[in-house]
Amino acid sequence: MTAAEEKPTYQLGTGPGQVLVWFYGVFTVAAASRSIVQMIMDYGKAPLAYTLSALAAVVYGFITYSLVRGGEKARRAALVCCAAELVFVLVVGTWTLADPSAFPDATVWSDYGMGYLFIPVILPVLGMLWLRKAKR
Questions:
Q1: 97 phi and psi, to 5 degrees?
Q2: In-domain check, residue 9
Q3: Residue 52, CB-side half-sphere exposure with 13 Å CA sphere
Q4: Total domains present in the chain
Q5: Range of the domain at 125
Q6: What is the pLDDT of residues 12-59, one digit of tens each?
Q7: pTM, whole model, 2 decimals?
Q8: For the chain, what is the HEC assignment?
Q9: What is the radius of gyration, based on Cα positions, of the chain?
Q10: I need a labelling partner for 117 at 20 to 30 A (CA). Which of 1, 3, 24, 74 fits?
């Protein structure tokens, strides 16, 4: 195989990956700060919602770290986390619509991320597409 025929390789945090790093970084800070403030101010009001927002922050942070770190192991780990994130968004989004009383306050994933312009449901799909393309 000549150099022209070789499959291109991608750095995870370059090109479209930079946009993903930026979005995941912003969502890490947004979800973490939201959940911390909510847990400090009134944890008893909606413990499930606030805990899910904290979980979202951890998932977003791990994906951000993996994209920046790069490498095949990080790519696979980020791909698994993006898939898990999508499942969480779909489950929590459906749950919040089916049983609104279970969530007296919103999470990052409530209503499929409607409070965040549906970015929480779009971002993992775009992340998985990029991570599959970036496969070596």
A1: -80, -35
A2: no
A3: 23
A4: 1
A5: 16-133
A6: 767 778 899 999 999 999 999 999 999 999 999 999 999 999 999 999
A7: 0.86
A8: CCCCCCCCCCCCCCCHHHHHHHHHHHHHHHHHHHHHHHHHHHHHHCHHHHHHHHHHHHHHHHHHHHHHHCCHHHHHHHHHHHHHHHHHHHHHHHHHHHCHHHCCCCCCCHHHHHHHCCHHHHHHHHHHHHHHHCCC
A9: 17
A10: 74
